[in-house]
Amino acid sequence: DVELTFSLHLQIAPEDLLRLTAGDIPSATSFAPEFDHFNFSPRSIGDASHQTKTSFQDLGFVQRFRLQRQTLACFLLMVQKGYRDVPYHNWSHAFAVAHFTYLLLRTETAHNALNELESFALFVASLCHDIDHRGTTNAFQVQSRTPLAQLYSSEGSVLERHHFAQTISILNMEECNIFAWTIHCINLANLPFALSRMISTLCMECVYPIITTVISIFIYYRITKISVGFDSSIKHHRYLLLCLMMTSADLSDQTKDFRNSKAIAENIYKEFFSQGDLEKQMGNRPLEMMDRDRACVPKLQLEFMDTIAVPVFEQLLPESKNTYESMLFNRKCWLALDEILAEEKYPTLGLDYLKDTFLEKRVIKFFVSFQSSNANVSSKTDYDYDGLTDFKQRNILCNGCMINIILW
């Protein structure tokens, strides 16, 4: 029933297909001058289907894997329709993850380390990794004995296995099979397994061992000076790199400017609190982060960043260093928000204060005044947050005069 329900609501309107196949494929920068920069916020774009098509072209996949225009358009529209209208795990999130993956795949490091098929599979996985997400966690699915949990009752994470199954369902449609030429001309026996592994990477239970393995390589080198670093000839090393890239893309909202990052956090906790409300109705006590009556978002954000996000971006590609620095800036902003709320005994339950633009300005000014009093890095003391409408200009200020004084 789950599979049937999913397939029935995926119907492509002819006008949508015509819109996506008409005309030449535009360049990436025609959508926005900053489109190919890590500081760009992809959520500022509309439905993003044209932009995703351009990404396939820009990465060389259209030519290398002989992607037919109509087939690619059908695939993109079906994937887009496969995402539900939930606050966070929606098509906008999928495109944000795919956009960050696109930027990583454009780097020299990724180009030299990964083969074309691995890059292609990673990009497809980034688009499909949360398809048909219900806005609830794996634990909720299992504890509530939902149809999904019963369908995927064997070992493995329920949601990630469902996302993979829906991806394969779409690819099995002849009109959507963007791997058709590749399967015919290249031995792709391991392709479904590769897609499955990359999507399953985003189960949080899988993230911890990957982070631990990657970091241990760097720590060993720093202590012994004996290089056991990345070796692209070792298949498992390439798999670890793919996992690291996939995980970082999934968390990339944490690296955008604080205003955008905070807005996305609000969407995440809307989903969490909705699940928490369901759990209460079922007579269960939700986790703190799912409970609107107990959760303090700034504290939870700091804990998540310190435990997961910061270690991931610290070990990411050399070309993405500015994303790590942006994340550190955002961490300082969350810390400043937490301190302001505590000092003024501001109500921290719920999400209303995340919409408070006056409080947002105070957070930025609080941080600037803090860094000005602790380091002589800039003579600018009045940070006109509203006045900096150009994202690039804002990002330069964040990554320049501010980031340099952060002690990590």
UniProtKB/TrEMBL annotation:
UniProt keywords, alphabetically: Hydrolase, Membrane, Metal-binding, Transmembrane, Transmembrane helix
Gene3D superfamilies cross-referenced by the UniProt entry: 3'5'-cyclic nucleotide phosphodiesterase, catalytic domain (1.10.1300.10)
Transmembrane segments: 202-223
A GO molecular-function descriptor: metal ion binding
Biological-process GO terms, alphabetical: signal transduction
Domain PDEase: residue ranges: 13-341
Organism domain of life: Eukaryota
Annotated positions binding AMP: 89-93, 130, 250, 301
Record-linked SUPFAM superfamilies: HD-domain/PDEase-like (SSF109604)
Cofactor(s), names only, from the UniProt record: a divalent metal cation
This protein's record includes keyword Cell membrane: no
Signal sequence interval, chain numbering: none
Binding site for Zn(2+) 2: 130
Stated family: Belongs to the cyclic nucleotide phosphodiesterase family.
Protein name as it appears in the record: Bm5306
Organism encoding this protein: Brugia malayi (Filarial nematode worm)
